[in-house]
Structures are given as C-alpha cells and as structure tokens.
Amino acid sequence: MAQVNDIHAATAQAAAPHPAPASSWQPLRNRVFRMLWIATVVSNIGSWMNDVGVNWTMLTLSADPLSVALVQAASSLPMFLFALPSGVMADIVDRRKYLLFSQLWVFIAAAGLTLLSFTGYVTPGVLLVAAFLLSAGAAMSSPPFQAIVPDLVEKSELAPAVALNSLGINISRAIGPALGGFILSLAGPWVVFALNALSVLGVAWVLYRWKAEPNIQRLPPEHFFPAVRAGLRYVHAAPVLRNVLVRTVAFFIFGSASWAMLPLVARRELGLGPGGYGVLLAFIGLGAICGAVVLPRLRRHLNPDRLMVATSLLFAASTLALAFVRHFWLLNGFMFLTGFAWIAVLSTLNMGAQRSAAKWVKARALAVYLTVFFGSMTVGSAIWGQLASHFSIPFSLCVATVGMVLASATTLRWRLNENPDLNLDLRDVDNRAREMDVSLDRGPVMVIYEYQIDEDDVYDFVVAIQEMRRVRQRGGALSWSVYEDIQRPGMFMETFVLGAWIEHLRQQERHTVNDLLLIGKVQAYHRGGEPPAVRYLIAPITSTSLP
User: Fold this and answer.
1) pTM to 2 decimal places
2) Mind spelling out the 3-state secondary structure of 240-261?
C-alpha cells in the first residue's frame, strides 16, 4: 500500500495552497548564488566585448555579408552540436567539476585568440575558428549552469532566480558592447580579447570554492549513450516541453536576422565605427534590462502565450525598423525595443523549459532546448546572410519580419500555458522490485499491471490510461500498450518494456508529483482491496549471454 499512500500524499500536496511568490531580489540573499551571479555578469561583459571585437575585426577583413553572418553562425553552431552531449554529461558527472573544465576551455581559447591578434596572425578563418571554440565552451557550460539554479535557491525563488540570470546577461549586454567598442577604438582588438580571457577567472574561482551538496545515488550512474536516449525519450513524452521547442524554432529562425544583419547595418548603411556599433548594442542591453524589471508586472496581466505573441510582434516591428531607419538615435530607440522584446521572449521560453523538466533529466532537457535555440539561430543566420548577399540587407530583414509575424500563429496549436499546475518534484515510490535478486543488466524487461474495472467504467478507464504512455516513457520505457483479457471480463493489463532491470529500478526513482497524480487517477478505477497486481517478465538467459 506504500504506492497508494504516496499517490494520496502527492494529491494533497498539489491541492495545498501555493506559497507567496518570492521577491525579485530574494535569490541574491543566497551567498553562493550571489557570488556566482556577480562573477557571471563580469564574465558575460567580457564575452560581449569579445563579440564586438570579433565582429568588427571581421568587418575590417571582409565586406562580404555572408562572411559577417558566418560569425553569428560559427557562434551558434557549437550550441547546436554540443549542447545535448553537454547536458548528458551534466546529468551523469559532477556538475561542479564539469563547469570548471568548461571555464578552463574558454580561458585557453580566449588567450589563444589574444596571442594571435597581438602578433598579427588573425584572418577570417582564424576568427571563425575562435568564435567556434569560444562558443563550444559556452555550449559545455550552459546546460549545467541552468541545471544548478534549483540547487542554489528554494523552489519558490526559481522564477526570480531565472529572471535575475536573464537580467545579469542583459546588464552585461548593456555594458559589454559599449565598453568593448571604446577599448577597441583606443587599444585595438587584442586588448578586448585579453580582457575576455581574464573575465573567466572569477567564475572559475567561485566554482572552485563552492561545495555542492553530494547527490546520493542508490544505483550506478548512467552510461553516456543510454543517457542520451533516455533524455530524448523524455522530451518526446513531455508535451509542455515539446510546445516550448516548437515555439523556440518559430521565433529564433526569424529573430536571428536582426543579430546577423546588425553589424552590416552599422558599418555599411550607417557608416559607424566600433564605438557607434557598441552604442547600438548597448541600447539593446538597456532595453533588455528594462524588460527584465517590467516582466514580473507583465506576467501578472498576460499569460505566457499572450506575452510571447505581443513581444514577438514588437520584435518584428523593430526588425522592420532595422531595415529602413537610418537615423542613428531613432534606430537606437528601436534597438531599445529589440532588447525589451528579446528578454521577454527568452525569459518566457526559458521558464517554460525549466518548469517542464524533472530534476533527474533537467540538464538534458535544457540542453535539447539550447540545441533547438542555437540550431535555429545558426540556420537563420546563414539564410539571412545568403539573402542579403543575393538581394539586399533590407530585403533580408523584411522577409524575416513577415516570417516572424506569421510564426506568431503557432500559439494557436502549441501553447506554453498548457498544464499550468505541472509539478515535477521527484517522489520516490516504494516497490517490491528493489527487493528482488535480479542482475542489474538483465533484460529486456516487461512490466505488467493488472486492473479490474467495472463494466460501467471501462470507457473512462481506457481514456484515462492513455496518459500512462507518457508517464512510462518519460521514466525510460521503450514501448507501452494496454490490453483487455477476453477470458476475464473487466480485466485490463497495462504493459511496458524497458531495456534492462536497472532501467526499471531507475524508473521507480523518477516518478514526479504529476506522474503520481496521473497514476492515482487511473488506479481510482481499479476495483479490489489491494493495488493493481504487478508482474515482471524478463528475457531468459541463453547460451550466448552466458560468460
């Protein structure tokens, strides 16, 4: 009866009143979060300075729009290639040590670019390789950085913590480009690259001093490729997360046009130097800071879907302005709106990804989100660069604007506000499978639950049990089915298959409050004094499987 009691406990928790929302600044009271936040802001300022240096150096070496757009593509491609493997690593190894390794990688790449720039060996190819390597370091660190946020703050502080991280990114966006442009005009690009390398050291120091609480595991850690498959199965069986991914593609394919074309507009259309280009980026950062401050108030009046549509249309309007407005200060006003809309969209999608992933798979789920995000940015940047090369910069931006307006209609089918009460806190369920003397690597394993259903409840039961497909697959099931025993009226059997016995044991540790609510809904139709009977079938040991 332990399983039933756990389900009732989960139901009671879901029915309990929600705690009062934390203030926007409350997470900063946590010393580790505060120190890491400050160090990350400094590091991001260095990254934005570096971006200005790389983009502007490319403009001085090549005037081809495609070459300039390829800088954005080279910066986005590593996230597309490496974010998912990084998320898997962050879920199966010590996240602190993995983050330290990623910071060392970024430091070496930034120091190498500094040396090449100082000695005069920078070429367009060198810049693209450097942008790729630096972004590869960011791809390593992004999933674990996002995944450790719930470990640093209380659950009630998660939303303001995510908002503070977004605010920190955009404070650095406001300071970094302007400071980078100023230093670039005074001392040259190598100094900008050197400061970026030094800015990484603060994050590494905080991570080195941080003593994370040990994560006690009763089972051996997952291997890499099975962990990848488990993460992808989870994403496939998580409707809210799938909606986030669709909306991510719909926005960033077209939103990438502004970032890819902005350096070209600054240099070729406005005739600006590095200082003027930095000012444009600084206004984007100021708009993002304003957006981060105003967002909590907007969220009280607009649900995530309405907020996404409104800010997407605002971003589309500012993209159109980038195509035609050639007055410097007026364009800066539109860049302010660009930053405002960008942070609203980014924060909304990020919160959607955070809330739709359970702790055991959070880094992998966020890595899939980052893969889709940066994959869309990479593909979009290449597309808009090609259009600008063959036609014109305004034409490319106009096509992107129309596409973004049309993409806003995705909210009609893929809603971010689906299942707003989703609770993915883990709940360990006692199960007799743990007591069985079975080799962990034996498999495949078929698990069968038997339900006795009254004739009047059959239709409702069959409808309700369909939700169990996602519950079992999120936990690791390879296949799922439900059958009716024609020789025993009212007897239904739910079956699912896992790759090995250890995968079933892991499945028992991966149940969330939401999963237990769905299980309880199904078991409510079962008749009898005991919970549904459970049977385990396992593939026999053959001569070929013997040692």
Assistant:
1) 0.70
2) HHHHHHHHHHHHHHHHHHHHHH
